[in-house]
Amino acid sequence: MLKKGAKMQYLSVLAGGAMGALLRYLSTQGISGLIKTPFPAGTLLVNMIGSLVIGFLFGVFETRAVPAGLRLFLITGFLGGYTTFSSYSLETVRLFLAGNISAAFINLALNNLLCLGFTFLGLGLSQKLVAHV
């Protein structure tokens, strides 16, 4: 059985995530409707906005007392649902700020190269699966 505090944490993340995911969908659709290009401009803009907001909130939360539930709702939930790129960006910035430059660059390289590679792998696996069904 979950403790009451844990239930509230889960609900904070769940509610924020749902709202962030919906806003991401609406934003990318709206931007794609305005900017006619094969380039994923909507996703890029959402990632940029999410990175800006997570950096701003991180700065505020480091200097102000903010309830843990609000942090979970906004950063883990809302921004996690809006764009996971913002989390990746914040983690990399934290490594830079901590002076762990090599880990920051390793994080950059691994996230970009491995995630792209795994996307291609997943695509290839799905194509093989579909070909056999």
TrEMBL record:
Cell location: Cell inner membrane; Cell membrane
HAMAP family with a match to the protein in the record: FluC
TM stretches of this protein: 44-61, 68-85, 105-125
Protein name as it appears in the record: Fluoride-specific ion channel FluC
Gene Ontology CC annotations of this record: plasma membrane
GO biological process: cellular detoxification of fluoride
Its job: Fluoride-specific ion channel. Important for reducing fluoride concentration in the cell, thus reducing its toxicity.
Membrane topology: Multi-pass membrane protein
Reactions performed catalytically: fluoride(in) = fluoride(out)
The organism of origin for this protein: Treponema primitia (strain ATCC BAA-887 / DSM 12427 / ZAS-2)
InterPro entries, per database record: FluC
Binding locations of Na(+): G80, T83
Superkingdom of this protein's organism: Bacteria
Major location category of this protein: membrane
Keyword DNA damage appears in the UniProt entry: no
Record-stated family: Belongs to the fluoride channel Fluc/FEX (TC 1.A.43) family.
Entry keyword set: Cell inner membrane, Cell membrane, Ion channel, Ion transport, Membrane, Metal-binding, Sodium, Transmembrane, Transmembrane helix, Transport
Summary of activators and inhibitors of this protein: Na(+) is not transported, but it plays an essential structural role and its presence is essential for fluoride channel function.
